[in-house]
Hints:
With 465 residues, the chain is an alpha/beta fold. It has helices at residues 55-71, 128-135, 183-195, 235-241, 253-262, 336-345, 379-388, 456-462; strands spanning 3-6, 26-30, 80-85, 99-103, 105-108, 126-127, 149-153, 168-169, 181-182, 221-223, 228-229, 248-250, 265-271, 275-278, 280-281, 294-299, 326-330, 350-354, 374-377, 391-402, 405-406, 409-411. Helix 1 (55-71) crosses helix 3 (183-195) and helix 5 (253-262) packs antiparallel against helix 8. Zinc ion binds next to helix 3.
Amino acid sequence: MTTRWLxxxxxxxxxxxxxxxxxxxxxxxxxxxxxIGFNDPTPAVPVGGNPGTTRGQQALxxxxxxxxxxxxxxxxxxxxxxxxxxxxxxCTATSGTLGAAGAWNYFANVPALKQGGTALTPDTWYPAxxxxxxxxxxxxxxxxxxxxxxxxxxxxLGKPGxxxxxxxxxxxxxxxxxxxxxxxxxxxxxxGHGLGVSVGPTSASSGNRALxxxxxxxQYMSDVTTGKRWxxxxxxxxxxxxxNNWNLVWTGAKVTNSISSTLxxxxxxxxxxxxxxxxxxxxxxPSLARGLGLRGVLVAxxxxxxxxxxxxxxxYPAASxxxxxxxxxxxxxxxxxxxxxxxxxAGAIGVVIANNAPGFLSPGGSASGIAIPTVGVTxxxxxxxxxxxxxxxxxxxxxxxxxxxxxxxxxxxxxxxFAQGSSVSHFDTSLTPSVLMEPFITPDLVSKxxxxxxxxxxxxxxxxW
Length: 465
Ligand SMILES: [Zn+2]
């Protein structure tokens, strides 16, 4: 019999008709009640290619665009129905829930197979939309909602009292202001999870499986250290692998074959005696010249004041050692672009930004008028550089390796400290350029899901899409 694993539980009535169906059959159903969410009548000015004239209509247009973008990239004979809500979620002026989405059900051992369908691997969990694509049928569960995905986002974001300095951007062109969150990017990302970018019912943290069965993901997840697939590990081994930073990788052929067309060459910084480390190139300013890179003396002078003298947010004193050198600053207080602009104004030839928390740093932002390169390093490496400054450093590209890979495979996000909701079911943040399915949305995303822009569609193809 078909076995179902319920991933979400919502009691609500479907009162609205499907708002639209497109040729690729990803259908968004407006599940909001009158007057709120997608039905919010608050007047809005059309923005960024979104012609809606109310807040609710603009939000619905964004969801529809995300559905269209996915639909035109996927092939399935079965409709993919997304129940969507844009109703208020828990929120205050300083913190709030943005939203989430996922597969409504996971299925295993679906017996019926329509002509032309593909049998599922026995005793293996598949997200609903993929199980239905492969077996070419609508898998009906009595007394359950007839949907494949659930998506709910906080419609109040940006309104008075709810993170009002960081509202949604409703445009369809990725041109959000620096204090806005691109709703289209977030919805595309969350739909990606619902379609199958997730380890599914297998616990990312404990490695335990639902009913003892693996998810379809596990055959493509490998640990470079042990050489084992998640499929072949014990729960304890999976739990360890989920925390094996940069050594949990995706080995599916479609992703691996797309790496060279999608990811940049590896960038490293070399400083004697501090050592060598991978760096994240900024999304703004000039790219590192191939072969040449950036080399010079790294200095760490105090800036002109403010919260910290090491954040590089204020102009440097005239007598500082910035001119002609590479400047080290700490992350925080102001944007990455401001730090680079201050260093450039004082005559620097490059900027190294040290993270202010554990993890890889790829400085994001966009700016015109920046003429020097910027890279990010870890907090620990930055501290070691600061202690040794001034010293010679060299930033260069390695054309034999792609950024965000280990042993030639794309890394999955597996930080040493487990991050609930982020670890395992995302690509790592070291992939450059950023891809859609990293745990944090970045401003350089372009609303594309396939290579050479992204690895999300290749990953879905690896699992059977
Ligand atoms: Zn995510």
